[in-house]
Amino acid sequence: MADIKVPYLDLKAQYRSIKPEIDAAIARVLESCQFVLGSEVAAFERDFAAHCGASECIALNSGTSALHLALLAAGVGPGDEVITVPFTFVASVAAVLYAGARPVLVDIDPRSFNMDPAAIEAAITPRTKAILPVHLYGQTADMDPILEVARRHGLVVIEDAAQAHAAKYKGRTAGSIGDMACFSFYPGKNLGAYGEGGAVTTNNAEYARTIRMLRDWGQDRKYHHVLRGFNYRMEGFQGAVLGVKLRHLNRWTEARRAVVERYNDLLSRSDVQTPVEMPYARHVYHVYTLRSPDRDALQAALASEGIQTGIHYPVPVHLQPAYADLGYARGAFPQSEKAAAEVLSLPLFPEITDTQIEAVCRVVQAGVHAG
Ligand SMILES: Cc1ncc(COP(=O)(O)O)c(C=O)c1O
Q1: How far is the CA of 86 from the centre of ligand 1 (A)?
Q2: Cβ atoms of 110 and 158 closer than 8 Å
């Protein structure tokens, strides 16, 4: 394996660019000793809700917890079904099982990699309670037809916006399109904490109240437990870091989009398929994903030049051994399975240099020719 010339992600470069602000925010938490929830977390909740165009934000300890609590607040439980996709990070499906319900999967639209709205209707049964579209890679799912079918059947729509901070759908911001939205602030995300973090945003005060209680042991006041809750609270340090980073998010999103323009331009004459920004979407490119029938060889060629890449995701959830009992065989979701075999994510972070982008593109342009 060659020395790393282009990392997939460079969190150190980002920290260096905002070090004084971050260090001051960390110092404030140390001084206040508000290590769990507290004023920094509350301030971040206000700012992030405003950023999403939502009236409520509940800060949590991970995106997985956000999905779990959003499902519980929607009343999802044993005997219920929730419709989502197999081409996602495993948490989208696992959270449905956390809630005791059954995940019902539908295939993706191969252009957007997101839930195919035309597939939903056939998956609805009398037990269906919610639809959980994932805004994969930073591009929103096609939400209007999803909301329309949900309204017709009285279903709750929960956005998995874990990869889609600041993404837009027809001018609306991810986090305020469905009934609730779930974010992850895992460090590598477009808005990443310095540890685990997540949040639910919503315009529904009742959902927000329930989630606020559930994250803190179901208390409505200290030691009065009206719900069976969890310890899913956000740490003070994470709230402080996220508050600082949120102020830079729009600038970082623009930088990502500029990198993508450069990639698209340099790769327009190569034999890989570059990502499609759907007409309804403003993509925030958490991940820049190519499609190539020679994906594994291309990844090896890049690695031999010291270029790190990722595969998001190599095995769709229905084919993971741990989820075999969902009952879906190979061939059940052809578009998801084809995508899993072909996708390759190139290095992408706001601080990536032009020289690094060109080095990546030289290898991709050279292609992988037999012999
Ligand atoms: C689509 C999606 N959903 C859910 C999650 C879970 O978030 P977390 O890792 O913060 O629990 C992730 C995180 O990687 C994700 O990418």
Answers
A1: 14
A2: no
